[in-house]
Amino acid sequence: MQSFSMRLSGRVLFGPGTVARLGDIARTFGAEKALVVSDPNVERLGHVNRVCELLQKAGIKVRAFAEVEPDPSVETADKAADVAKDFGASLIVGIGGGSSLDIAKAASVLVTNPGGAASYQGLGLVKNAGLPKVLIPTTAGTGSEVTFTAVLIRKKEGIKAGINDEKLYADYAILDPELTLSLPPRATASTGMDAFIHAFEAYVGKSATPFSDIFAESAIKRVGRWLRVATWDGRNLEARCEMVLASYYGGAALANAGVGACHALSYPLGGIFGVPHGLANALLISYVTRHSVMANPERYAKAAILLGRECGASLRDAALSCVEALEELVSDLGLPRTLKDLGIKIEEGRLREMVKGAMAVDRPMANNPRPFDEELCAKVYKEAIG
């Protein structure tokens, strides 16, 4: 057995209605002022106002920054940090999907470190610890509340990259499934697939460990059983609870074993075409898997079983059934299977740009069971065009 390290973020509180305990949690940090980071949609749903009221009742002064866009930019992270500095915040509370949580994490370290967000994109570049942060997801997908990454776009370059540093781990995560009940089917499906692919790529990847497998296997099983239900019966609280746990476990698997080529290939779709991250992953995963499955057939066969497949007698058939399981899941969720479905056309020059961007995401590429080169990247993109 190989040697490995283990890591998780700070404390976690799970359960319906647990967001009501935010004030008590915030007081444990001794904070006098808190910046609440979110997006306009979460603000419209009333979640931002509720969080602000909970903090104010705990005697904490509050300012809200609800300007986070989908696939957020380095400029948004810099702006949030400037607001926190001007306000004198000593606590950051992020509430929303992965974009809001990523901006909250980035802002927490930008307050205590010089320079802008772009200068910290990479691995282990943050010198000083950030402000304490409490993260509250309203989707079940990104796992941002348990990872040490904040993914941001440099719009001028069309590049999507992460600030990756253990100083970005949440100090506290509140997992309240009731906050996900208002999530519409398309968003439920795409964010749920994001959670699944975190776990799936961590499970089949080269860096998988017995520790990461605990979380990955649990997440894969939960998604296979509950994502369809949560998507098409959104008020089903049991399904929402299971998917919030799946998202957290998928994020934990990702934080300890990384992801693979699907994530690397999805980044240019977000950076260049603005395709939401979960949607891009869901679209690409079966194409990537079809080309990767024979590099680790035992793992892919086990993943198929975790998804509920009754596999054939041969290892090859069992492994290939994983591709079929993925195609069925994406189809059942009503998500697009091709770039044509999204109205995206790719010219040769743009294809070369996408391949170059994907290959630059080197850690996920290196973690994939089958090594990807530029030729294979281009082949997958062409297959995904439809």
Description:
This protein is of the alpha/beta class and 386 residues long. Helices cover 52% and strands 11% of the residues. The chain is built from 15 helices and 9 strands. The protein has helices spanning 22-27, 40-44, 47-57, 74-87, 98-110, 185-204, 210-232, 237-257, 261-273, 277-292, 297-306, 315-332, 348-359, 362-367, 374-385; strands at residues 11-14, 33-37, 61-65, 91-96, 122-123, 133-137, 149-154, 159-164, 172-175. It has a 6-stranded parallel beta sheet, with helices on both faces. Strands 5-8-7 form a 3-stranded mixed beta sheet. A hairpin with a 4-residue loop joins strand 7 (149-154) and strand 8 (159-164). The longest helix is centred in the middle third of the chain and has 23 residues, at 210-232. It is globular.
Provide a concise account of the structure shown.
The protein has 386 residues and is α/β, with parallel strands linked by helices.
Count helical runs: 15
Question: What is the average of the pLDDT values?
Answer: 94
Q: How many β-strand stretches? A: 9
Coarse morphology: globular
Strand order of the largest sheet: 1-9-6-4-2-3
Biggest sheet layout:
6 strands, parallel
Find the structural class using helix and strand composition: alpha/beta
Spatial extent as radius of gyration: 20 Å
Gap between N and C termini, in Å? 42 Å
Which consecutive residue ranges, at least 5 long each, have pLDDT under 50?
none
Q: Kindly report the oligomeric state of this protein.
A: single chain
| β-strand amount | 5-15%
Proportion in helices: 40-55%
Element-level helix/strand string: EHEHHEHEHEEEEEHHHHHHHHHH
